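Hi Prof. W.,

I finally got the Flagellar biosynthetic protein FliQ prediction working! I wasn't sure whether to trim anything, so I left the full sequence exactly as given:
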Amino acid sequence: MNTQAVLSMGQQGLEVMLLVSAPILLTALAVGLIISIFQAATQINEVTLSFVPKIIAIFVVMIITGPWMLTTMIDYIQRLFGQIPFMIG
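And this is what came out:
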């Protein structure tokens, strides 16, 4: 196994990680921004006000995109396990 194969595997792993985590992170960012604007407009400085809507939104996104996330991770793992014979010799 050469360095190019190791770098390729690492790059693929990072791509899958970013792809799978993007919907959750973008949802948390959007909900946090909306709640922050609401808090600034109403001058309410309650920490838990932003926490609960983020959790609910993240659960909804995980329910919607969960099957796609699982399929993406399974495909990556199958490709990774399929490369094991070629890595050994």
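The longest helix spans residues 3-42. Does that look reasonable to you?

Thanks,
D.
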